[in-house]
Amino acid sequence: MKIPKEFLEKIKVRDIMNTDIVRLKPYQDMRSIQEIMRIKRIDAVPIVDDLENLMGLVTVENVISALVQGDLNAPCEKYMVRDVKCLSPEDSLYDALIKFRQFRFGRFPVVNNDGKVLGLLGTKDIVLNLVDREDIEMGVKEEVKEEILVLEYPVMGGDFALAGMASSNVKKALQQIGISPEILRRVAIVTYEAEMNIVIHAYRGVLRVRVSPEYIEIVAEDEGPGIPDIELAMQPGYSTAPDNIREMGFGAGMGLPNIKNSSDELYIDSIVGRGTKVYSKIYLKRNRNV
After folding, report:
1. pTM of whole model > 0.85?
2. d(C-alpha 214, C-alpha 265), whole Å
3. pLDDT of 111-131, one tens digit each?
4. How far is residue 169's CA from residue 194's CA, in Å, rounded to a whole number?
5. Degrees, nearest 5: CA angle 174-180-183
6. pLDDT > 60? residue 267
7. Quick one: pLDDT at residue 239?
8. Exposed end of the chain (fewer CB within 10 Å): N or C?
9. How far apart are the first and last CA of the chain?
10. How many angstroms separate the CA atoms of 26 and 79, rounded?
11. Strand, coil or helix: what is 253?
């Protein structure tokens, strides 16, 4: 379903922005910001002066730059983005989406006419608000045909702000149709680990879930570097995630082993330089303890 422009124009940025945000000062060091991002699982922090006026923005990419240069003790003003693209609280969601598409950023600070930071608007905030509204579909397809439910969610590589949202939506949908808690737990593990593998390792991908009366089929397909040695990648603790990703709390090397342990059937097809396809099947009537 295409969302009408008129509907998007009625929603204001002030109504959906996240106001519960961290604001820091320019003298605070990058190491502290890295730890704050890890604990709060955020990917951007506005830098403000004593009057709460926006001075800059520190993103995950800025932290990675400081990490690579061994310069995490530097004040954040050294690495922060100074020419920050912002939204006004009075902007419509339609205007905001145009800016998201134009600049390809994952989030924008929201500032008033005096330059004070009021909040942040990210893609996660938009999706969460839209999926709660009736008859709105945002990049998600849900069909019910003769007891078959089909779900499809796009997943962007490197987008940690939205990481886990697709698997969470799958869980909610399966709860609504009465899937048992044990099956639900296994599906949640497979979908979350598959989604995180795309976010951590790939450029982009898609998570598909198909429910039939006999089984749940989960397919995670991505465009990315591929897996040179699938057997090695299946070993617990083996990971090719870079250090900066691990320091954020991801990439522990348990993704594929967890998927295997929660699946009745598992098939992985990967081509180096092109991408990977993970196919998992969980039977509804042949439950097992995992």
Report:
1. no
2. 13
3. 999 999 999 998 777 876 765
4. 14
5. 80
6. yes
7. 66
8. N
9. 38
10. 10
11. coil
